[in-house]
Amino acid sequence: MKKIIIAIDGYSSSGKSTLAKAISEKLKYKHIDSGALYRSIALFAIQKKIFNSDLWNVHNFIPLLEKINLKFKWNKKYGQTNIFLNEENIQSKIRTEKIGKKVSLLAQIPEIRKILTVMQRNIGKNKGIVVDGRDIGNYVFPKSEIKIFMKGSIEIRSYRRYQDLKKRGEKVSYEEVKKNLIHRDIMDVSRNISPLKKSVDSVEIDNTSMTIEEQLNLIFQLINKKTK
Q1: What is the model's pTM?
Q2: DSSP 8-state code for residue 138
């Protein structure tokens, strides 16, 4: 079976990472969560107190960013890929609402996108990867063999995100989560650099009322055609 690149784009909390993880596990592919990369940058900026100091401008932040070390490592015990920032496992730290509120701001900065795009392309040189994000099929891997575009109602996406945050022990209201997702949607589709949009050769999946099994059945029909 030949190795391919599977690009999964879509709106925030549309189930991209859940789907990508399930596909990568079944195919034994690497999983690149590009959202985790951007969240890691946001965490790094917060740790360096970038947002509440005179340092917060592109010219001062990029030199700091170029020195960090980001890596994905497979966690056999929990069956998931964790992300490490300068050798520290930050998987749980980057999933907070505090981080989520900063991500879209940083994602608009061309220099940051350029650094993370190069990083992702280096990981995908030998194919055999599943990548999820917002500009994967259009920009990062435009020649990927399979492109998926995920969407869902704002209500169901907000509810999924709200439940996820509650499980992590965060005190946040459903309305606050919904408001943040609407804001992120606007930021993602309207930014000048690599905005979120469905590429012409993407297969669209609206999973508002679909189970993960139904989504996987649909996608593996596509995969089987491309890998024969």
Answers
A1: 0.86
A2: I
Domain count, the chain: 1
Is there a domain that residue 227 lies in? no
Average pLDDT, the chain: 89
Tokens 């030199």: give the residue: 63
Structure tokens at 129: 């990867």
The alpha-carbon radius of gyration of the chain (Å, integer) is 17
DSSP state, 201?
A: T
Token pair in block for residue 74 = 């497979």
Question: Does residue 145 contact residue 29 with C-beta atoms inside 8 Å?
Answer: no
Residue 149: inside a domain? yes
Distance from C-alpha of 174 to C-alpha of 176, rounded to nearest angstrom:
5
What pLDDT is attached to residue 67? 80
Any domain includes 220 = no
Residue pair 11/188 in contact by the 8 Å Cβ criterion: yes
d(CA 118, CA 124): 10
- DSSP state for residue 139 in the 8-state scheme: I
Q: Tell me which residue range forms the domain holding 125.
A: 5-213
What CATH number does the domain containing 26 carry?
3.40.50.300
